[in-house]
Design goal:
This protein is of the alpha/beta class and 517 residues long. The chain has 20 helices and nine strands.
């Protein structure tokens, strides 16, 4: 909306009569644009937007012809039998056993109770600067304001921020003042902190009306995501080293707000994944409020995308639908939904080595033979990378046929591990040996596994996330942090820029380009 409630209250017939035709046209364009936006929002429902059916008015079903059951029907019961409202303990005094004893009083809700004494932040730091936010032009007629024009302060706020210096950082405590300016046309323009519109799935706001500045928020995200500190430890660090006193709730809000601020970048990351020629994929267990979910990583040469969801192809199906490159993965069966696939040979080598060291002679012989064949093929791949004319499929045709027969012989072997490895080779035969036809491609999925390692350690320390919003904030921030690291760019100034832009209601800046020449 271009015009605020404060602006609309000043627009009446007397004010309009004073405007020139040019000023009236400008104001009319603003009013028309706001009216269209308001009408679009008013017409939104569960059938034409992402709003859930529960958000609609109770009578909306009737308007669509879905008539609910008549009131007073037998299924609803007799209204006269409705139980009376519970009385307070004072009301039931002297009426026998109190309702507190009967257990009918509503359970006390957690947190601050109605009527309880509140508390505010203690202002102990000195103010380092004062900033007045004046309007550049009149919202009514569009005329520019003079720098020395009248400005009446109406509200203000304090912002804690850090500024990077040549050696270390400096903490600033800035007082921001907002107010009103009156134009010669009679209209009073008011300035207020900007904010981002609400978004589905997020209950944390994005607004310039915030105690913590963008770069300080980025530092808090760094301490949490990169240094793996708990909210309590972050609070302790800020107090001890920077003299900044913040509650753990405020710290958690900064981290979640950072996740919401980076949410629009997910589309850019997905597009980079879909356009890549080679994609590394892996997944590991994750805890969300004690429930087992899975943390997925999709990593290309220039971008990393994390997702939390089920251990099912459905989690990444929409992304993979528009991907046409090579997919490097382990032996998890869900990856077989994608045909143009590579298999990590390191997993097969580890399993074969385990069989080679087995106490069962047939299993040890099978494992030894698989290791010898894999070693031969891997050496051939390294040689072929220096000789593009070499055809490894033709060169190793006899060895491939021999290994396939050996796997067929052991697919029903009584030794379970031997049977599983033989079947794994047969089920993924084309994916395993695709590297012989394309020796320039990688042999292992170590890139994805190394990407997950840091977050696995984080999961063991933090026990995961508490809810879906926390999981989404975690994956979004992890994606941006690792993508910046891949491009040899520090993620923290960039995240601060993203938070600042989103607090203003602007789109986030695009992901930084690689600093590697």
């Amino acid at each position: 909306m271009q015009l605020t409630d404060h602006d609309l209250k000043q627009i009446d017939e007397e004010y309009l009569s004073k405007l020139t035709s040019e000023q009236l046209l400008k104001l009319s364009e603003k009013l028309l644009d706001d009216l269209r936006n308001a009408r679009d929002r008013l017409n939104q429902n569960s059938s034409n937007s992402s709003r859930p059916p529960s958000s609609e008015a109770p009578w909306s079903d009737v308007e669509r012809g879905e008539v609910p059951a008549a009131s007073g029907s037998e299924e609803e019961g007799d209204e006269s039998q409705e139980e009376p409202r519970s009385k307070s303990p004072k009301q039931v005094e002297g009426e026998g056993e109190s309702e507190w004893e009967q257990g009918s009083v509503e359970k006390r809700k957690p947190g601050k109770q109605p009527g309880a004494k509140g508390s505010g932040r203690r202002l102990e730091m000195r103010v380092t600067d004062v900033v007045e936010h004046k309007a550049a032009e009149c919202r009514g007629c569009g005329a520019s304001f003079d720098e020395d024009g009248s400005f009446v302060a109406t509200t203000g706020m304090y912002v804690l921020e850090i500024e990077k210096r040549t050696h270390g950082v400096e903490v600033t405590h800035v007082k921001h003042i907002y107010g009103e300016q009156k134009c010669s046309c009679g209209h009073v323009t008011q300035t207020m902190p900007s904010r981002c519109d609400s978004e589905e799935g997020w209950d944390v706001g994005l607004s310039e009306w915030h105690l913590v500045g963008p770069l300080l928020s980025s530092l808090i995200i760094c301490l949490s995501m990169r240094m793996r500190l708990s909210r309590k430890r972050i609070q302790e660090f800020l107090e001890d080293w920077l003299g900044i006193s913040l509650s753990t709730g405020c710290i958690n809000q900064c981290i979640t707000e950072g996740g919401r601020a980076t949410a629009p970048l997910e589309e850019e990351l997905i597009e980079l994944v879909q356009q890549s020629e080679l994609l590394y994929v892996d997944e590991t267990g994750w805890k969300e409020n004690g429930r087992l979910v899975w943390l997925w990583v999709l990593r290309t040469a220039t971008a990393t995308l994390y997702l939390i969801g089920r251990r099912s192809w459905e989690t990444i199906a929409d992304i993979m639908e528009h991907f046409a490159g090579w997919l490097m993965s382990d032996g998890y069966g869900q990856y077989r939904h994608y045909s143009k696939r590579l298999r990590c040979l390191a997993h097969l080598i580890r399993k074969a080595r385990g069989l080679e060291e087995s106490c069962h002679p047939p299993a040890a012989q099978f494992g030894q033979k698989v290791l010898e064949t894999l070693s031969l093929f891997i050496k051939g791949v390294y040689v072929a990378r220096g000789d593009p004319e070499m055809n490894l499929l033709t060169k190793f045709a006899a060895e491939l046929e021999e290994l396939k027969k050996l796997c067929e012989q052991h697919r029903n072997h009584p030794h379970l591990k031997t049977q599983q490895l033989a079947r794994e080779f047969l089920n993924d035969w084309d994916a395993i040996w695709a590297v012989l036809a394309h020796p320039e491609l990688p042999l292992t999925n170590n890139v994805a596994e190394r990407a997950l390692r840091h977050w696995v350690i984080s999961r063991k320390i933090s026990s995961g996330t508490r809810n879906a919003q926390g999981s989404r904030a975690f994956t979004l921030l992890a994606s941006v942090i690792d993508t910046c690291r891949q491009r040899a760019v520090s993620p923290w100034p960039y995240i601060a820029d993203v938070i600042a832009a989103r607090r203003r209601g602007d789109a986030p800046p695009p992901l930084p380009l690689s600093a590697i020449s």
